[in-house]
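Saturday, quiet lab. Running sequence design on the structure tokens for the scaffold JK sent over.
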């Protein structure tokens, strides 16, 4: 038997007492990837109003918070800006960014992988974000810097 606290059960029942939230849960069960705009459509509510309902469901543990782009991106304009700043075509980048581990970095400034010896990464993955739509010049620059670092450390 699962042991739930009275407070947690109260929060769950309170969240489920609203017919709009129950309908939203049913919709999410049928379409788990439904966007906030899609959830709002049948209720003729604004996205912020739907977001408030989702927060109640989230606090009750009935839905999980969106990770990306997250709560900070709400309007269509904000979503458009978010996608424009992060989308990429066929130039993958940013999977091994330079920087301290504590801030999500994978590499040191001389392209060494944190916590390893003898392993470096020198390609577009070193950038925290894709450097424009034609990254080859930036990649050449990184390769030149890496070559200088490797030669300097080899004593040449």
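Result came back. Writing it out in full:
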């Amino acid at each position: 038997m699962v042991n739930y606290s009275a407070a947690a059960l109260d929060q769950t029942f309170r969240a489920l007492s609203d017919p709009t939230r129950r309908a939203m849960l049913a919709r999410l069960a049928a379409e788990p990837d439904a966007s906030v705009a899609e959830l709002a459509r049948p209720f003729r509510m604004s996205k912020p109003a739907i977001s408030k309902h989702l927060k109640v469901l989230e606090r009750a543990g009935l839905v999980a918070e969106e990770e990306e782009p997250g709560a900070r991106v709400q309007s269509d304009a904000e979503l458009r800006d978010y996608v424009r700043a992060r989308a990429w075509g066929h130039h993958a980048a940013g999977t091994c960014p330079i920087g301290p581990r504590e801030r999500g970095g994978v590499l040191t400034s001389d392209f060494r992988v944190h916590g390893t010896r003898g392993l470096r990464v020198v390609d577009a993955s070193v950038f925290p974000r894709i450097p424009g739509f034609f990254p080859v010049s930036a990649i050449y620059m990184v390769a030149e810097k890496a070559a200088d670092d490797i030669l300097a450390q080899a004593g040449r």
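Notes for JK: The radius of gyration is 23 Å. The chain has two domains: 7-86, 101-153. Ask whether to fix the surface positions before the next round.
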